[in-house]
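User: Okay, second chain of the day. Same drill as before: sequence in, structure tokens out.
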Amino acid sequence: MKKLLVAFIVLISTSVVGLNAEERTPEQIVEQTSSEVLKVVNEEAERIKTEPAYVNQLIDELILPIVDLQAMGKLILGKHWKTASEEQRAQFIEEFKAMLVRTYAKSIADYGHAKISVLAPKAKEQGKYHTVNTELDTGSGVPLQVAYVFRRNSEVWKVFDLSVDGLSLIKNFRTSFSQEISETSLDALIERLANTNAEKAEPVT
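Assistant: Same drill. Structure tokens below.
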């Protein structure tokens, strides 16, 4: 789980200077910005560690052009998405995003030294789906094999899933959340996420 979220946070970081993603290929979105942004993460390490609101602001303003949170929420909830109201869907996506940010906002600065290498495509991909395979070297041993799955929607490439060493973020959360919903309810899951996000939303000291 931690590896998945670390990879997600690194992708979020690449969006800081990726303002014209619609003009670039998925490989360019990942490759062209990573070295520049990881440098920013290093330079802003202290602020990132002590100001969670700063990380929230960056994500709120800049992640939406890069990541399709709507598609993520739909795939994670699976069959429960079909029966959920529009309000429940919106609340779940908001709390899920807050959970991702909250979980690693306090440690994102620790990954400024990470290096991302975009690998050659395994096969030519066409249509609206495209996978970018990368190696994420965090300096802690064998590089992680990270695959970012993009979907083209309205002429814009957006990430809707990622996997680390074969473990999918979507599948991982879908399994755990589906079990929780079956044992309680969707409203109970949303309430738990909201309560946890509220409790943990405090600066690092």
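The mean pLDDT is 80.

User: Thanks, on to the next one.
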